[in-house]
Amino acid sequence: MSSTSDKAAGTKPVLPAPPGLTPHEFRSLVLGELHARPFLPINLPLRIYHFAFITTDEEARADRDGIAEMAIAHGFPPPAPDAKYHRFDFGIWELRWEQHTEFTTYTWLTGRDAATPFAHPAPIGTGEIAFKPHGKLIASVHMSVIAPGKLVAHAAEGFNPLALCVIKASDGAARVTTDFQVDKIGYTRFLIESKDLTPTRAARLVQRMLELETYRTLALLGLPEARSAGPELQRMERELGEITQAIATAPDTAVQQDLLTRISKLAAAIEAQTARTAFRFSASRAYYAQVKSRLELIQEQPEGDFVTITAFFRRRLEPAIDTCTAVEDRQRRLSAQLARAADMLRTGIQFEVQHQNRDLLQSMNERASMQLRLQQTVEGLSVAAISYYVIGLITYLAKGLKDASLLPKPLTPEMVTAISVPIVIAVIYLAMRRVHHKLSSKDDGKT
Fold this sequence. Notes:
With 447 residues, the chain is an alpha+beta fold. The protein has helices at 27-33, 57-73, 123-126, 199-219, 222-249, 253-297, 309-403, 413-446; strands at residues 2-5, 46-54, 85-89, 93-99, 103-110, 136-146, 165-169, 174-182, 188-194, 301-302.
């Protein structure tokens, strides 16, 4: 029995560096990444049970702790704290554990009772294997790999003929049969019949087929999100249409402000939906790219008149991915339309405000002009009133001077009064203008 694992980048380098040279902190990671999850040769026949679990960060940590406990319980050294791959050899059974960004896989392999495909009960139900994974199951595979010279006469029996896929793989060195459907005990079954697979080529084909099924399942996780987002997206598109029609007939700024508020709420809703679905849609595209990559790597060839996996996925998987892409496109288009509608409304509101400001300024100018005329009238009346009182005082003074025989001859009080009228008016007018000018200068200085 043995236990092996890979080690991801840690705080210290684990690979040696030439003497006197300081290695980059990620040197071990980038050099070791190409050798992570190796294709270990396998001997045929083989029974394989593969499980994939969606795990949160907390569940992933708990799962890694569980693997460490399993290793210690069987007398193996535990995997490194940051290991992403670990392999246990229990003798009869082999376990391969892998941890990815959002999922973890357990793959159990055994050669016991493997000669007849799918003849042996599932090992979990019989107690052959026991493990405590964390997370939620997303994929479970029962794979039977038959040794060369042991081709199954009726390999398609037990599979759904309506979804049956049969291909040649590895340049014709093997035949793969599956229907991508879950059987009565919860497994998707794959039958691989070797014609002349070497142990290493068999290992590569097995791993790629397991990855194909895992990534195929993960890629479809975006479909429920797309279906869930569809009705809400349709409602928002319909509301935007109503708002757009209302913009053309909005009678005043108040209505436009209400429409702008509705657009802002709608924009917030579409941004919230986009944020909620963005990761899942992006992940679905990435997983689908992995599916297509694995299809290329297995070197698929048609087998008679049977449907190939590529053709099956083109009919079943590709439309689901297209649905996710279509929802993403609708989200982006709706967001852009909302931005344009908001800009249109803001422009209309701004134009209306400018028009109101122009009218207000015009009204203010008219009031200022009227005030100026009123002020000039008041000033004229003030000059007349003050002049009247001043001239009256001069008249009284002239009469007093006459009575006192102090008024020079030939001047009379009437003459003095007549002479003083233009002089008094001019002096008072100039004095008031000077005061007005000083007050205006002070007001200008304050502004």
